[in-house]
Write a structure and sequence with these properties.
The complex is a heterodimer of chains A (about 100) and B (about 375).
Chain A lengths: L12 E5 L2 E5 L5 H7 L6 E2 L6 E2 L12 E4 L2 E5 L9 E4 L1 E2 L7
Parallel strand pairs in A: 1-7, 3-8
Antiparallel strand pairs in A: 1-2, 3-4, 5-6, 5-7
Chain B lengths: L8 E7 L3 H12 L4 E4 L15 E2 L9 H25 L10 E5 L2 H15 L10 E4 H7 L9 E5 L3 E2 L2 H14 L3 E3 L4 E7 L2 E6 L3 E9 L5 H4 L12 E8 L13 E3 L5 E3 L14 H14 L8 E9 L8 E4 L6 E5 L7 H14 L4 H4 L11
Parallel strand pairs in B: 1-2, 1-11, 2-8, 11-17
Antiparallel strand pairs in B: 3-7, 4-6, 5-6, 9-10, 10-11, 12-14, 12-15, 13-14, 16-17
Helix pairs in contact in B: 1-5, 1-8, 2-5, 2-8
Classes of the chains: A mainly beta (about 100), B alpha+beta (about 375).
Chain lengths: ~100, ~375
């Protein structure tokens, strides 16, 4: 669905989403990396279980919540990727333990 | 039939669209009464929108033993009440009664709690029911993740909770289905009684009804004297902290802390003077949060998403006032703090009495405001 603009440099950052290795660009938000890697949703709703995807991409809508390095309910549009980051799609409510 | 707004006739007009007025209207409609429910607008204080949603028994009745029996009766009727709302509206109000706890964070707190319960249950005429002081070991088996600072507590199997916003929604839906006329932005300015009929003046129109029920929360204080009743009120303010939704980990409601059916944690542990609903103070929230974290350290990791102040409807002695006017027969007063806990009683028991035109002194006589006269 999303296509990258031509790269200004060719450095990349490796992370995993649900255990699947993906490459992102330095400065990508986790949400951008997710979408660019072809993930079309990032979580299921805590109440109804419906699929949710990043929407506003600017920290307002809270629809882009994912689990980052074991911590749930993180706004993926506000967190920059880093090398070796472990991202998991969140299913329903977060667990209270980090 | 030509409807004429100024001459609308109702069997009963309920003043106050909070949980008390809504539950009563529901019961009155079930009893076959033609009901109009008069509510204020969105800018009203709306005490019952800010409640903690406990269906609570333990500790109630110190100073008025009948209040313990009345609360137990409602707690026992709540399952049937929730099932009835479900069958009439399809809405599940999330009622559960797994039993609830008080937690003590020091030996001194635990001793104080034990003394309180002893005084409560030593009162002559109080109904016997299970509330027990429990040790830490017992708490650990029911409350995983319990903090090290908790030394003990008390447990009552009759305590539970519900989703109070859905309770509002279910009552509103049931009222609509049953043809109750709900009028928002109809603050009652004056009430006149003449020849067995009440005229209620609002900015919009005048309404007429054969009976009225004042269920206006703290504002009942101003309305009650218009029909020969008194409602001495002493409202206070409480603050509530709400966290993000998390997987269920807390099966039992704690009196100051509970996990809702949708996963959020609500923390409410304050009684403050001053009744400005816009005031939320950080020192109070810090104490509440710190105590909650000592009870369940896991909470320290959660994000807070909301906090607010709620105004408690509170009579002078904290007990309900149920009354009927001698000078204006057909005028009733229903005023209490525990609109959630007592909703089942209000819908079933009290509404039937009001519908028949007379409060039954044997079951609710103790709650007359006449108790304030003897002091």
């Amino acid at each position: 669905m999303f296509t990258r603009l031509p790269a200004v440099d060719d450095t990349s950052v490796s992370l995993s989403i649900d255990g699947k290795p993906i490459e992102a660009r330095p400065g990508d938000s986790v949400a951008a990396a997710l979408l660019a890697a072809g993930f079309h949703h990032c979580r299921t709703s805590a109440v109804s279980g419906a699929l949710r995807a990043p929407y506003c991409m600017m920290g307002v809508c809270f629809d882009c919540l994912v689990i980052i390095d074991g911590v749930g309910n993180r706004q993926s549009c506000l967190v920059p990727v880093h090398e070796g980051m472990r991202v998991e799609l969140q299913r329903g409510k977060r667990t209270p333990v980090a | 039939m030509t409807p004429q707004a100024t001459r609308t006739e109702f069997d009963v007009a309920v003043i106050g669209g909070g949980l008390v007025g809504s539950a009563l209207s529901f019961g009155l409609a079930r009893a076959g009464q033609r009901v109009v429910l008069l509510d204020e607008g969105d800018a009203a204080v709306r005490a019952s929108r800010a409640n903690f949603a406990l269906v609570w028994v333990q500790s109630k009745g110190l100073g008025l033993p009948e209040y313990a029996g009345w609360s137990i009766r409602s707690s026992n009727a709540w399952g049937e009440f929730a099932a009835l709302l479900k069958s009439e509206t399809g809405l599940d109000v999330g009622f559960e009664r797994p039993g609830g706890f008080h937690l003590a964070l020091s030996e001194a707190e635990l001793e104080r709690r034990a003394r309180q319960l002893k005084r409560l249950h030593n009162q002559p005429g109080i109904v016997t029911y299970d509330t027990e002081i429990v040790d830490r070991k017992r708490l650990e088996s029911s409350l995983p993740g319990l903090g090290r600072d908790v030394v003990g507590g008390s447990f009552c199997p009759l305590d539970g909770h519900c989703n109070s916003l859905r309770l509002h929604q279910a009552l509103q839906t049931a009222l609509f289905n049953r043809g109750v006329r709900y009028l928002a932005s109809h603050k009652v300015e004056d009430i006149a009684y003449s020849a067995g009929e009440f005229a209620l003046r609002t900015a919009q129109r005048e309404l007429r009804a054969g009976k009225i029920v004042i269920a206006a929360g703290n504002a009942s204080m101003q309305l009650a004297p218009l029909v020969g009743l008194v409602a001495p009120m002493k409202p206070n303010r409480g603050q509530i902290i709400v966290t993000e939704r998390v997987q269920p980990f807390l099966r039992h409601p704690i009196v100051t802390l509970r996990q809702t059916d949708e996963g959020t944690i609500m923390i409410g542990d304050s009684q403050l003077d001053g009744i400005d609903p816009d005031e939320v103070t950080m020192p109070v929230m810090s104490v509440m949060a710190a105590r909650a974290i000592r009870m369940f350290p896991i909470l320290a990791r959660l994000n807070v998403v909301r906090s607010w102040s709620g105004i408690r409807v509170m009579t002078h002695d904290g007990f309900p006032i149920y009354d009927q006017s001698e000078t204006c027969p057909g005028a009733f007063l229903v005023c209490c703090h525990s609109g959630v806990t007592l909703a089942a009683n209000h819908a079933f028991t009290l509404a039937s009495m009001i519908s028949s035109g007379r409060l039954d002194a044997d079951s609710v006589g103790a709650f007359s405001a006449r108790r304030f006269d003897v002091h």
